[in-house]
Specification:
Elements: E1 2-6, E2 18-22, E3 32-41, H1 44-50, E4 62-63, E5 67-71, E6 77-80, E7 83-84, E8 98-99, E9 111-115, E10 119-121, H2 128-131, H3 134-148, E11 156-159, H4 165-176, E12 180-184, H5 188-197, E13 201-203, E14 213-218, H6 225-230, E15 232-240, H7 254-259, E16 263-266, H8 272-285, E17 291-296, H9 300-308, E18 315-319
Parallel strand pairs: 11-12, 11-14, 12-13, 14-15, 15-16, 17-18
Antiparallel strand pairs: 1-2, 1-4, 3-5, 3-9, 3-18, 5-6, 6-10, 7-8
Helix pairs in contact: 3-4, 3-8
Length: about 325
């Protein structure tokens, strides 16, 4: 079957390890299902895998891709929950959790095999392309907002780095849930897009906000950390799920964190139940993932290059 896979690890030039070509079809195993992939979406996780983060040389070649929507062997339209081992189903109770491509072959292929427990029905209201955007970036944003930040309608939130998959998801979900939303981006066009998606206002990084916010959605890391901390009201919550600009800010702002009793919460992905809730939320409210580009699988390299260059607003989707 045709697939996009990591053939080599290169920490400095990750795309040099990306190959497109034939790979073996997944073999049947008890408790697992094989899904015919209709659409899959890119995440920064895929770039990190090519750099060897969470993926060792001993596991190569590895088909990349965490997210997918497709059709199972019984003809059901399904969405893949990409965390394997969370439940023990299909792998045994002692296996630690992993994301697809860390241990098991991924979704950038004509077919993917996952534990049957990892499949959720695709709502008829969502296209395969839309559904394929949800399991990683959009699920991450959903958990950050509603589980870990605990925001409620009427609260205010700052989303750092508008343009990335998690950030755009957070803007759309927060607005749909009745929050006041501020966003930041270095790019004027992306600030305008953020406002078009529902942000009440968008600013350059580091700008003073009209008010201190109840929560900050942080995926940028070092470059925006101080601004995130300073933007919170006393008792507010900073939720972080990534650090694309680096993990070591110049100032940790510890004095401000303890004096104002701020909460800093780490967040990674989400649960199957949360993905089910997110799918229902989108189906009922009409909220749809923001898609930057749709490409056929044989043009996956273009999608990787676009993501690596930061030249996107929303998700890159590969169709099979």
């Amino acid at each position: 079957m045709f697939a996009a896979y990591a053939a080599r690890i290169d920490r400095d030039q990750p795309l040099s390890g990306l190959e497109l070509g034939e790979r073996p079809e997944p073999e049947a195993r008890p408790g697992w299902s094989t899904v015919t992939v209709k659409a899959a979406s890119l995440n920064h996780h895929d770039l990190w895998s090519l750099r060897g983060v969470g993926l060792g040389e001993e596991s190569l070649p590895m088909i990349l891709g965490c997210d997918a929507a497709g059709i199972d062997e019984h003809g059901n339209e399904v969405v893949v929950f990409p965390v394997v081992g969370l439940s023990g189903h299909g792998v045994g109770p002692d296996e630690p959790r992993s994301i697809l491509t860390e241990k098991y072959q991924g979704t950038f292929a004509e077919k993917v095999s996952v534990p049957t427990w990892n499949l959720l029905p695709k709502p008829k209201e969502l296209s395969f392309e839309e559904a394929a955007c949800l399991p990683t970036a959009w699920l991450t944003a959903y958990r950050m907002l509603f589980t870990n930040a605990g925001v409620r309608p009427g609260d205010s939130v700052l989303v750092q780095g508008a343009g990335g998959g998690v950030a755009t998801a957070a803007i759309v979900l927060a607005k749909a849930a009745g929050l006041r939303v501020f966003a930041t981006s270095r790019d004027e066009a992306k600030r305008k897009r953020a406002e078009d998606l529902g942000a009440d206002a968008a600013f350059e990084p580091g700008a003073r906000l009209p008010q201190r916010v109840d929560a900050v959605i942080e995926t940028v890391g070092a470059a925006t950390w101080s601004h995130s901390v300073k933007s919170l009201r006393p008792g507010g919550t900073l939720v972080i799920s990534g650090a694309t600009s680096g993990p070591n800010p110049k100032a940790a702002e510890l004095n401000r964190i303890f004096f104002l009793e701020l909460k800093v919460v780490g967040s990674t992905m989400g649960t199957k139940d949360e993905l089910e809730d997110l799918l229902s939320f989108c189906a009922v409210t009409g909220v749809r993932p923001v898609i930057d580009t749709v490409l056929p699988l044989d043009r996956a390299r273009e999608g990787f290059e676009k993501m690596a260059g930061g030249d996107l607003f929303g998700k890159v989707v590969l169709t099979v």
